[in-house]
Amino acid sequence: MNRIDRLMGYLIMLQSRELIRAQDIAKQFEISERTVYRDMQALSEVGVPISAMPGEGYRLMDGYYLPPIMFTPDEARALFLAVAMLDGFTSEGETKTAVSSALAKIQTVLPNATRRQVEALQAILHFYSFPSPPLNFDDATFVSLQEAIHRQQMVRLRYHALHSNRITERAVEPSHLVFLDKAWMLVGYCRLRQSERIFRLDRIDHLHITDEKFIPHHLPDRDRMHGDVTVTVRFAPEISRWVQERNHFSHIASNPTADGWIEAVYQPRSLDRIIGWLLSWGAGMEVLAPSELRQVVAETAVLISQRHQANVHMPAA
């Protein structure tokens, strides 16, 4: 990266953060802190009002705003695709209106050549959320949880479990909202379970934001898509391609077997998170491990068979 691009990068970082340390800048651009000091001096000399806070870092003086930054063609294309995708996947509401407005503003500030490229993309690229429901960024529960996370307020929720149909009252210290497996999830510290838990927003029957503040728990980083349970399954040749297209989010690896089947490995956080998906593949699927999941699938298949036997007409031999 040449110095001009690096200095422009400094300006972007200063504009987006209240305070930034020299060591963070050095790490970001893979340079020495001494080089950062020289670059900051150069920016000051050309009139950028940078304040150096001893022992803290650098910041722009209050009231100073950088002029609009022009996008390169690649940046404009990437930004357009991101905003257009959000526009296509978002349900009607304030957010979708704001997205459409932002998209129009982006186009007006682009150079003519870049704008023509973006308009060409707009004519041939379209995003639809079918068959999944569109993302609703204006949902009351979603918006309320954002505020609770920002203000570090404990929430109380009535939660509906998927398989047991049990309804429990939970006191949760919310920390993140995650879009996972086509649904929004709340990640937080559950006081009932005394550990981090994940709650689907569409299974929250009632939400109450309390006035109680909490100090966030410093929990170790974890892979929220995968768990400690290992599931091994094989799929028949006639459905293996479709399995790969609609694979479960906990998928780890797949390998073909000598008989043409596909053997796949999954690591869900719990067995109940994958049972329904496995059963959706019917007789083209066989659970190899663990034995308890294999037993559950066998018992479910027997129950389904019993419920349908009265209407089954077996073909003649």
Please mark out the parts with pLDDT under 50 across 5 or more consecutive residues, or reply none: none
Tell me the structural class.
alpha+beta
- Encode the helix/strand succession as letters: HHHEEHHHHEEEEEEHEEHEH
Number of strands: 11
CA-based shape: globular
- Please, how many helices? 10
Overall mean pLDDT: 86
CATH fold-level name of the largest domain: Alpha-Beta Plaits
**Biggest sheet architecture:** 5 strands, antiparallel
Helix content: 25-40%
In whole angstroms, the N-to-C terminal distance is 75 Å
Tell me what the CATH architecture of the largest domain is.
2-Layer Sandwich
Total count of domains: 4
Order of strands across the main sheet:
6-5-4-3-7
Residues in β-strands, percent: 15-25%
**CATH top-level class of the largest domain:** Alpha Beta
- Using only C-alpha atoms, the radius of gyration works out to 27 Å
Task: Describe the overall structure.
This protein is an alpha+beta fold. The protein starts with a helix and ends in a 9-residue tail after the last helix. The chain folds into four domains: 3-60, Arc Repressor Mutant, subunit A; 73-124, no CATH class; 140-213, SH3 type barrels, CATH 2.30.30; 231-309, Alpha-Beta Plaits. A hairpin with a 3-residue loop joins strand 1 (50-53) and strand 2 (57-60). The protein is built from ten helices and eleven strands. The strands form three sheets. A five-stranded antiparallel beta sheet has the order 6-5-4-3-7.
